[in-house]
Amino acid sequence: MHSLLALLLLLLPWRSSAVEGDGFCSIPQSITETRSRPLYWKVTNPTLSPSHLQDLPGFTRSVYKRDHAVITPESYVFSPLPDWVNTLGAYLITPAMGAHFVMYLAKMQVKSKSALPPQDVERFLFVVQGSAVLKNDSGISHELPVDSYAYLPANYKHSLESDDTVTVVIFERRYVSLENHYPEPVIGSTEKQPLLETPGEVFELRKLLPASAPYDFNIHIMDFQPGEFLNVKEVHYNQHGLLLLEGQGIYRLGDSWYPVQAGDTIWMAPFVPQWYAALGKTPTRYLLYKDVNRSPL
Ligand SMILES: *[C@@H]1O[C@H](CO)[C@@H](O)[C@H](O)[C@H]1NC(C)=O
Question: Which region is the signal sequence (predicted)?
Fold first, then answer.
């Protein structure tokens, strides 16, 4: 028995160092490295894979400036959403940046349930992953799978519930009312929305909300093939919250040019010069908040 244990202890260090090179009692990695690789070998053999660049200590593509922000997934910080059940949220755009709306990701877990937005605040939600059930106060429920969405007018009682994991992107803002105009709840699905005319532009556009006066914002879904770009270098009074759903490209914001990819969030303040080119090998799709139908005064 004892001799067997001794034999095991004797063999163990050899085995682990042969397999992974960093086990208990194994030869320190620095020594093996200098033996097999020349000094400063990383200078002549640099790591060019983008995934390795993003693993650099302290590295992030996120930026936050006066008139725009790019918030990338390695910077997302999730914490429990107030009054929601079993849900973690990451607020990505808030009025603290200068926005008049919030944009956040909600990660709903098993047996989760939403809370209502504050008084007089309207809500738009879009399912990014999984499938949730939207219920109103009469107990009427709708299944919302990926790519479907709902608009809930201010003070409209509802709840979003799920028995499984669901990820939802949510926009909320204080509703700007207009005399004799009352928005209705909207439930829809992206692929059921018609493609709209985009004179002078090549991208494909869908609007998820009615373009009529009761609605003080809209959500656009924009599709680009690789190589397509915005014709107009836009500068306008509207503000934007953008979630890149698919693809990659370059977003110009002010004097800065940002490589962006699916999962990234962008905040655009009024009047920031903005432009996008879809690059890479896959189409780009992004979802875009835009305030509309109200005087800026
Ligand atoms: C719930 O939704 C149904 C169907 O859209 C609607 O007829 C009903 O009025 C809603 N209930 C409330 C309390 O808004």
Answer: 1-18
Q: Counting atoms of ligand 1 from 1, which one is nearest the CA of 156?
A: 14
How far, in Å, is the centroid of ligand 1 from the Cα of 113?
19
pTM: 0.85
d(CA 163, ligand 1 centre) in Å? 23
CA separation for the pair 270, 254 (Å, rounded): 11
Q: How many CB atoms lie within 10 A of CB 47?
A: 11
Amino acid at 144: L
Q: What is the DSSP letter of 295?
A: -
Residues in contact with ligand 1 by the CB-under-6-Å rule are: 136-138, 140
Per-residue CA distances from 43 to 38, 46, 194 (Å): 10, 6, 53
pLDDT per residue as tens digits for the range 182-209: 999 999 999 999 999 999 999 999 999 9
Coil, helix or strand for 4? helix
The one-character DSSP state at 45 is S
**Cα-flanking dihedrals φ and ψ of residue 256, to 5°?**
-110, 145
Distance from residue 158's CA to the centre of ligand 1 (Å): 10
